[in-house]
Amino acid sequence: xxxxxxxxxxxxxxxxxxxxxxxxxxxxxxxxxxxxxxxxxxxxxxxxxxxxxxxxxxxxxxxxxxxxxxxxxxxxxxxxxxxxxxxxxxxxxxxxxxxxxxxxxxxxxxxxxxxxxxxx
Length: 120
What we know:
Elements (H helix, E strand, L loop, with lengths): L1 E10 H10 L1 H8 L2 H7 L6 H17 L9 E6 L2 E6 L1 H9 L2 E9 L3 E10 L1
Antiparallel strand pairs: 1-5, 2-3, 4-5
Helix pairs in contact: 1-2, 1-4
């Protein structure tokens, strides 16, 4: 059963500006190391970072309490993006019988993420 749907749209320019003003601080504060590893080797990190930023925001829209930026991150299972969670959040999801589904996209100027929260 679907419990909630979260959607977030991020302008690539917003992420690009954050990267230009203080790249190490922004990246270190917002993104999990696994996300950064996944993006290594890309010519332009901004679309991937923006999509991951949108995923965190989309999940926040379906989750009832606040969490830290690095408590939720995007990983890959094959080519499919999936959400991973810090232990406390993962435990809460498991206890409530919840699973999060994720879809990411980006175009020339924007990135978006949709999170569907399902009760198993």
